[in-house]
Amino acid sequence: MNSVQNRVLVIGLDGATFDLIKPWMADGRLPHLANLIQNGCSGPLRSTIQPTTAPAWTTFLTGVNQGKHGLYDFVARRPDSYNLEITSAAHIKAASIFDFVGQQGGNVVGINIPYTAPARPVNGVLIGGPFAPAVTPELFYPRSYYDKILRLVPGYFVLPDYNSRAADPMADYAQKLLTGIANREKIALHLLQTEPWELFMIVFMATDEVQHTFWHCLDAPEGSPEYHYRDTIRRVYERLDEAVGHLLEAATAVSSAIPLSTFIVSDHGAGPFAWMINLNQWLANAGFLQFRQDKTSGVRQLKTGLLKQMALGYRRYVPGQWRATVRTRLGSQRFDQVKGEFESVLLTSNVVWEQTRAYALGAGGNIYINVAGREPEGMVQPGAAYEQVRQEVITELLTMRDPDSGQPMIKQVH
Questions:
Q1: Which of the residues 179, 246, 362, 411 has the least number of beta carbons within 10 Å of its own beta carbon?
Q2: With contact defined as beta carbons under 8 Å apart, do 91 and 76 qualify?
Q3: Please, which residues bridge with residue 76 across strands?
Q4: 47: helix, strand or coil
Q5: Cα(92)–Cα(61) distance, integer angstroms
Q6: How many CA atoms lie within 13 Å of 155's alpha carbon, on the beta-carbon side?
Q7: What is the Cα–Cα distance from 157 to 378, expressed in whole angstroms?
Q8: Which of 152-156, 186-190, 364-368 has the lowest mean pLDDT?
Q9: pLDDT at position 116, please?
């Protein structure tokens, strides 16, 4: 028996930030978000550590931290190995809010939520989200929704491909972001009106994607190449505000006799991007990691350099439609295996592990101690030696300075 007494609508805007929302609300450009904020509660929340998509959305879904759900980054180290694997919903060790609602007899619908692919069984409908490499039946639960959704939205995609061969690659990518919003809005409106639900959740990634690509254009000077794209982020926010209005209107209409609670949520904020730090090179410079210096090191460096150039060429010169075909033909699981093997070669091929005390992997700034008995060639003993190395790494990180201003670059180490 269904014991759920009200309905909940959750709309995720990945990477959305009040730094942009508030001034655009003040200008009257985001009326639906403004109305929700004025008539509800709002505020900046603390994200996870690290504040990246993989742990943050998984913590939102499960209500537990990374130590309990198991996702720290887009990649994970395989047990008893230095090799990497691409993380997915299969790595999540905790139950999600969809499980809890289903156990109480409630129906759920989830659309495009990061780390819900491959789709787990739920009491309802689940369309998996990033970072599924391709749209295949395993993206959907029930599997029959693969055909249903592709009939509703032919050409449906999870994330847009950046086509560097387009006449105007930036404009082409911006249009794909808007198309992705429209696709998901159409699916959501259809499922809102045709499926039973007590919990309905959809995540739009376009806010995050457009900020990664176009943030540097926000204040571009007139006459610069970037000036033409200065309004791209705002246009995406305005289109998402429109989608929020449509979704809220539809949810309210089907919930007229049942109380409806609405949440607009983000997994982290956004801002300008000044520096990229190669942590493994930094660890080597600080004496924590040892790169090979023997006769094979040059060959290994050449090999990894060629692999990087191949990956860059694949993204730059192979048309997006062809890349999508490759991902579909391989299947999500095999594609992730190949990608994990590629990442493993880049990380492991030129490191002298038996002389390495600490190393980094992933995109979030995660540093690992090379622990004896855990890593295959671990050299740091658990206990006092581990704590000593850990403290040395922390101390060194806090000395890192901005090369322009001389100010500390690291606020805190966890």
A1: 411
A2: yes
A3: 85
A4: coil
A5: 10
A6: 9
A7: 42
A8: 364-368
A9: 96
Q: What is the overall mean pLDDT for the chain? A: 89
Cα 148 to Cα 205: distance, rounded to the nearest angstrom: 22
Task: Output the pLDDT for position 124.
Answer: 98
Q: What is the pLDDT of residues 105-138, one digit of tens each?
A: 999 999 999 999 999 999 999 999 998 888 999 9
Query: Rounded to whole angstroms, how far apart are CA atoms 360 and 355?
Result: 15
- Please give the full DSSP string across 94-151, using - where no structure is assigned: S--HHHHHHHTT--EEEEEETT--SPPP-SEEEEE-TT-SS--GGGEESTTHHHHHHH
- At 131, list the tokens: 């970072």
∠ CA 32-35-41, nearest 5°, is 120
pLDDT at 148 over 90: yes
**Sheet harboring 140-141: ordered strands across?**
140-141, 124-128, 108-113, 199-204, 7-13, 260-265
pLDDT digits (tens, 9 = 90+) for 238-252: 999 999 999 999 999
- Return phi, psi of residue 260, to 5°: -120, 125
- Tokens 């590629």 correspond to 342
Which residues are CB-neighbours of 284 under 8 A, at least 6 positions away? 290, 291
